[in-house]
Amino acid sequence: MDNKVPFLILRRMRVPLLALIGAYAASVLGLTLMPGIEIDGEPTHISIFHAFYIMTYTATTTGFGELPHAFSDAQRLWVTFSLYLSVVAWVYAIGALIALFQDRAFKQVIEENRFASAVRRQSEPFYIVCGYGDTGGLVVRSMAGCGLSAVVIDVAQDRINELTLENLPYHVPGLCANASHPANLKRAGLEHPQCAGVVALTDSDHVNLKIAITAKLIAPELRVICRAQTHDAQANMASFGTDAVINPFDIFADRLAMALHSPDMHRLHEWLTATSGMPLPERIDPPRGTWLLCGYGRFGKAVNRFLEYEGLSTVIIESEPEKTRAPKETVVGRGTEAVTLRAAHIESAVGIVAGTDDDANNLSIIMTARSLNLNLFMVARQNSRDNDDIFEAARLDLVMQRSRIISRRILALISTPLLTDFLRLARHQNNEWARALIERLRPVIGTRVPALWAVPVTEQGAPAVFSALREARDIQLDHLCRDPYARDRTLPCVPLLLMREDDELLLPEPATALQPGDRLLLCGRSRAELRMLWTLRNANALAYVESGEQPRDSYVSRLLFGRRARAG
Amino acid sequence: MNVEKVVFSFFIVLALTLNFGFFLGEFDNPDHHDVYELFAAIVVNLIATVLKFGERTQIGAVLLATSLVADLQLIAAALVWTVAVHIAATGLTPPAMASIVSLSGGAVLANLVSVVLLVVDISTLRR
Fold first, then answer.
1. Residue B127 near chain A (CB below 8 Å)
2. CB of A376 closer than 8 Å to CB of A351
């Protein structure tokens, strides 16, 4: 049965309705049979209609009065009896109805129906987000900020309750179910035509793996983005074609290593991946020397690996070296006491990484370290978003917040897919290249993180340009970057990448000729994006930008005056 | 012997018999149609409808539909009676009686279909 709700109501209300009908029937019948007061020597009788009317206002405890005549004592006796009978029947019926609406199973059915219809009504592309903890919450909120829709599945009911309380720009349906069951993914819209992908962010690698496999088997054309906490799971997920596997520890350690060997490249990375509109992140310059690593879990191992690859020496402080399989020279201890830190020669170290899985311990390590050596480069791991305030107050050089790293990466993948290609190509360049690009970007973007947008040279994305190219006109990248209001001004933007089927051009030249099917990645101020939309979509703006002349609009004027005129 | 089935069938057949009993007699003669029988027919029809709630099968759905039709017709008949006697000044005239009886006749047909479906349903049950 498709809609179980009316069916359930009818089933439950059978007995109460029967009681009600019985009470009414008996009372009405009795009332019509009882002899009324004597008028002109004849006892009056109440008709069935009047009896029904009297019973209605008596049973519902409204109580108008004795109509149309005063009752005789026989009638009053009967009314007394039927009052008790019918009022009890009414109250029982209403009580049964209320209890039904409060019934847990019933409410669950209503919730499921509501969720299913919300999913069916999705008319924009949406992503299925599995897992609504710290990371899931951040991802959904950032997606909503970018105008992307989402459907959430989480196994804990209170997280779904949190979702309903969130102040998001539009409704995000949430389902409390186990996402590793394929039936639940289907219910969340895996086979919906508007579903654009699945993001698996649960706590368990195994569940994420199952979600990825399910998505790839049932709907192979969807994008699947997973979070992985171990390298085994990462390799496993990549083996069957998961589009992106995100290991936050590796990502952070990689960033730290990048900051060590190419600080300008790191800075470029930060500028392009931070939230648009925020103040520009500052340059960080981690020093070279000996680093102290407190905590040798997955995070500590990742950082150690990347630092050693950069040629730095590390001293590991770990409280359970056998469990974490730490190397022999490890200093045993948590790092929160001065004794342990001194044993690790903190006076001669240049940096410290507090990487345990407890936020209080990490902050304690940092504060102890600061009291022993003021010049240390401080890096700490933040586990829970609830502690944002204290980590900000600690004024650390670098904070590794797992959820933020994952959500930024996911957002970069989802909102501007070309960005990952650009960053991949940029890594192969050297620090000087990055510095030159930063110098080029700086006057264009000012003091805020730039906006990034993609221009697809297709019929839907850039209709004017597309049809101009089909007429074999020569449209160059330079034309797009001009201001359609005044063509001798250039828009505040920098083209970063030009992607073609057979070619990838990093930082393309302004004179590059465009071809149909090209995809461009541009970076700059958001108003540049809006102006550029004019050039892309409006044929007159494009013609103006190209040649400085306005083509005539109507057939008649073209006939009379010829095709072109000087710009007025 | 299934008590639930006995009660179910009892009320459905009783609805038909009371209804038919009211319908019998001269079409427009008020003496032949007792108001209490109409009252009893309405009550038993309502009980039969409620008993048919919550059916999951296709035949159960049609049974419920016929019951609702019969209820509708009988309640309409009661309304016509009430209007004729209490509201309009005419009293129970032959034309009014004719309307009442014809409405109840429609309800008889609906109840008949209901009983037929009941028999069909039971005869398809395996022993």
1. no
2. yes
Parse chain B into domains and list their residue ranges: 3-123
Q: For residue range A412-452, what is the model confidence (pLDDT) as tens digits?
A: 888 887 888 888 888 888 888 888 988 988 888 888 888 88
Cβ–Cβ contact A49 with B under 8 A: yes
How many Å apart are CA A391 and CA A35, to the nearest integer?
A: 87
* B71–chain A nearest CA distance, Å: 13
Spelled out in words, what is the top-level CATH class assigned to the domain A4-102?
A: mainly alpha
Q: Which CATH class is domain A249-418?
A: alpha beta
Q: What is the spatial distance between Cα A125 and Cα A137, in angstroms, rounded to a whole number?
A: 19
Q: Which residues of A touch B54 (CB under 8 A)?
A: 7, 10-11, 14
Mean pLDDT of A4-15: 81
The superfamily in CATH containing domain A122-246 is: NAD(P)-binding Rossmann-like Domain (3.40.50.720)
Q: Does the beta-carbon distance from A50 to B86 stay under 8 Å?
A: yes
Q: What was the ipTM of the complex prediction?
A: 0.76
Say whether A44 sits in a helix, a strand or coil.
coil
A11–B53 C-beta distance less than 8 A: yes
What is the distance in angstroms between the Cα of A119 and the nearest Cα belonging to chain B?
27
CATH number of A450-566: 3.30.70.1450
Interacting residues of A463 by C-beta distance below 8 A, sequence separation 6+:
A536, A537
